[in-house]
Amino acid sequence: MVQHFIQSTFRRYRLRQDLEAKKNLRFIQPMHHFRLQLAQVNLQTSEYVLIKTHKLAPNTHASLDPSDFKVRPIISNVGGPTDRISWLLNLVLTQLLTFIPAHLSNTRRFLDQLRETRFRRNHVIESFDVTSLYTNVSNGDALQATHELLNEHAGSINMYGLSVSHVMTLVKECLDCSIFRWSGQYFRQVRGLAMGQRLAPVLAIVYMSKIEKPVLDRRPVNSVWLDIAHRADLPKSLITRLKCDLPVCPVLYVLIKTHKLAPNTHASLDPSDFKVRPIISNVGGPTDRISWLLNLVLTQLLTFIPAHLSNTRRFLDQLRETRFRRNHVIESFDVTSLYTNVSNGDALQATHELLNEHAGSINMYGLSVSHVMTLVKECLDCSIFRWSGQYFRQVRGLAMGQRLAPVLAIVYMSKIEKPVLDRRPVNSVWLDIAHRADLPKSLITRLKCDLPVCPVLYVLIKTHKLAPNTHASLDPSDFKVRPIISNVGGPTDRISWLLNLVLTQLLTFIPAHLSNTRRFLDQLRETRFRRNHVIESFDVTSLYTNVSNGDALQATHELLNEHAGSINMYGLSVSHVMTLVKECLDCSIFRWSGQYFRQVRGLAMGQRLAPVLAIVYMSKIEKPVLDRRPVNSVWLDIAHRADLPKSLITRLKCDLPVCPVLYVLIKTHKLAPNTHASLDPSDFKVRPIISNVGGPTDRISWLLNLVLTQLLTFIPAHLSNTRRFLDQLRETRFRRNHVIESFDVTSLYTNVSNGDALQATHELLNEHAGSINMYGLSVSHVMTLVKECLDCSIFRWSGQYFRQVRGLAMGQRLAPVLAIVYMSKIEKPVLDRRPVLYCRYVDDCFVACSTQKEMDTCFELLNTQAENIRFTREKPIDTWLPFLNMQVQLERGFLRTKWYRKPTSKNILVHFRSAHPLKTKQAITRNMFRTAKMVSSGDREVAESVKLAREVAITNGYPLKERSLRRPSRSRPHGHTDESLEKVTFCLPFVSDSVSSDVRTALRKCGLDDMVRVVEVPPTNLRKKLVQNRLYDRLCITPHCVICPNGREGDCMASGVIYVITCEACGDEYIGETGRPLLCRIKEHLAGLKNSRPETPLGEHRRNRHGGVEFEVSVRILMREPTTSARKTLEAFWIRAKDPKINRKDECLAITSELAPFIDLCGLQLPPASSRGSGHPGPTHCENV
């Protein structure tokens, strides 16, 4: 189409030339006249083209072939939707151009730069041209570059009342508004900037400033110096003095090493006979002045290098201070070609480390460490030199002649010689550290060992491991020995005494360490053992000789760092202690049978430090085992550290948790129409749920959930309910071309990465911990407990045990909040793209984008964020998009919503004829109609939603009269008022509305309506009777269980029950109650029976009625009641009704005379005994796996 336009344009141009020629006019129409005419013709459309006349070939002016012409497409935005806004934005953004170093505003500016630049003889010039800049600009990168530049200089320009975010939002809108018309049709510009848009030039210039930055960064050393000097606010006189405007190129020359000349080579002319020293003269060079200042800084570091000799006097002093021995030897070492073989990278690293360590102790002359290192690197990189009229670059080593070369070489060598210096005698290390730590002279002298003796090896026979027939054997292989190296009087003997005092204090912080037998007995008494617990002892084979010294040192360092503030360090720092410990371990020479050996692995038994280091090393080995402690232990530990109330600690402590159980729910909304009667499991999609009720993490996760759910308010895309979604829809300004879709996460819970979820939660909690109620816990406490809850992932299915190895368990209290926080991390890249609207309810996302391409990009981006997270998408059907319980329509920028029910929904409510209070049924329909109206946007949508709600109500048997369906009610505040909270709650099983009305009338007549609040308890429905999440969980595998044979399997694990114990010998009974699992209470009764303890009911019964003879018992459950007060009251009713002989008079609540007449109405009858027979005394609980 563009080609057709060009052809028609040039036909008119050719016709005009022919007409002028016929009039004998001897000139060709000037090109600017033609341009004006062409513009007048084509301004009737939104796009037009200009021919690039400066690129026309000489023979193509009269051509009609469009391929001979290069055109510049221009989109005229005069009067367009962004025309006026871009005028204001252009005023703001053009001010940024003054901060772009390479930008030329006009020819005068170019001339000024030419005059300011000092050119050299070898300099070359060229010009570069960007091909089709505007159309090839990346809009995203242009926006990012503009954002960065605007952020940096917003305070220096006139923002015309706008903020940076305001400006960037408007700029993005102007770029996104890229519709234009051409030849009567509409198109969208999908790439680049539109020439003709006011913002195009400034955005293209800013974008190019980002492209050319690496080239500008190749500036000379002088520029780097000026930049750093101004940042450091150095004196102007110093800046000017060290600025080198006309540096000369460094020159190479050589010096002959005359001291290495052979006697017969003085008159030689052969170059190979001479050794030379290459020197690059930097006098007047680009780094000459700057390196002078750097040298002042760095030479101060030489005082911190132990082996550095500044002059001969210093060498003599060291010789005098050293105490030489008879067997000592001396040598001198020389580095071959040090300067040229220095590794610049390692030299820079060594200098950086040393400068970081001692920057506070030297004069930095106003520079920071980073400033110094930047300038040093620039000086090293500036390595061009001239030799014999040619130019070269030094690619390795330091240039002799460079001011910085000596100091950098010395610092580099300090790193090379460090391992050698570390091998100095223990005594020297001790004196050095002791003087640094300013220890008392008496202690220093006492622990200094001037004449140590060499440690000696001897062995002890392990007599306890001798075989019975080997006592008289002379065969060495029959004996196991313990090698011991005696360090008495050795070089580390005295120092290790002090170190042992320090390190043995750490043993109190090692949980598994036993200091003596008494401590072991205390731990045994404090531990609550269960029936299925097993015990064993483990022994480490040859512990001392197999310890890894490096790991032992690391474990000691970590433990010492953690607890240094809690122990007596005897004036030493952690680094001092660790240095001395390492020296003691490295000093491992010993003598055996007149010869000398070195211990190359393990600890020496006989060394004072060996036991403590071995114990600390083992604490690291056994940590993974200790970390496998139950969640309950972790909770108690953290709760006591956080000083939480004892009532809360006890309430959340779970002494006898049950194993979580897996069950599945069929996704009925995803059933195909023809699969309702199918028996093929593959036809059904199920939702796996792990019931954690009563599980080990059930109570603790309740508290954690209170903490973490507060974080959801800080997640931008999170939807708490439908009302929040409606608010976001109303706040969003949709345009005509906007599109909407919904994304759904496939199997979110099971595909969550637990590690990433924990990390995302940690980051969010760290950020907002000060804004939420942490309930007395710290961030680390919360995260430790959350991790424990996730790691506790054992569950039971069909009698077998499994562990969930990936994802979150649906049924775990923490699963929803962790999944939501994890998804906030997944969706962050999409939110950074600023879609029109993005919101999410758990795993259902509603997305609105400016274009379909942007929608596709967001979808693809979400699917690349995690390995296991995959999204599916749903597009509007007949312009309506279902989302949650509503449908959304976006058509030409207008939004409509209405109530929605899934086609697969059975629309089942509480039936009108069911046995429920009338108020309950009225509330159900009233809420349904209220929701239908709330989610509907207009009168038409309200009518459709109400009609659908009416159909649902009628299907469930509700009357057709609209008044009865939508009976108005007075608005009541949610929750109970203070008045209702003061009333006594009277729970009444619902029989009928008339019975409930009669009860309320009776209370009113008695004047109790102000004190009693009647609550009708709904009857048990089919779901509660038929659906069980522990269908296969009621298994009793305990031999001779006395509980389950008289009831159902699994009764021994029931809690909150009233039970009866029957003596099988005489028939007497005992009635009791317990809130714990029944097996625990019965076990206590049987223990009293077995030991004949008179303080227990069964023990007293054995003595008084059976003469101390043991008898058999059977146990049955009478009633189940979770509430403690109600359970104790029912126990009293049972005791009053049955008068059991074994019970004592003071064991239960007394029944008042007012309640006594009602006992017969309670129907308290003993349940029949099971045909399975009675049990025997013995084990009373199911085996725990």
TrEMBL record:
<dbReference type="InterPro" id="IPR000477">
    <property type="entry name" value="RT_dom"/>
</dbReference>
<dbReference type="InterPro" id="IPR058912">
    <property type="entry name" value="HTH_animal"/>
</dbReference>
<feature type="domain" description="GIY-YIG">
    <location>
        <begin position="1054"/>
        <end position="1144"/>
    </location>
</feature>
<dbReference type="InterPro" id="IPR043502">
    <property type="entry name" value="DNA/RNA_pol_sf"/>
</dbReference>
<dbReference type="InterPro" id="IPR000305">
    <property type="entry name" value="GIY-YIG_endonuc"/>
</dbReference>
<dbReference type="Pfam" id="PF26215">
    <property type="entry name" value="HTH_animal"/>
</dbReference>
<protein>
    <submittedName>
        <fullName>GIY-YIG domain-containing protein</fullName>
    </submittedName>
</protein>
<dbReference type="InterPro" id="IPR035901">
    <property type="entry name" value="GIY-YIG_endonuc_sf"/>
</dbReference>
<dbReference type="Pfam" id="PF00078">
    <property type="entry name" value="RVT_1"/>
</dbReference>
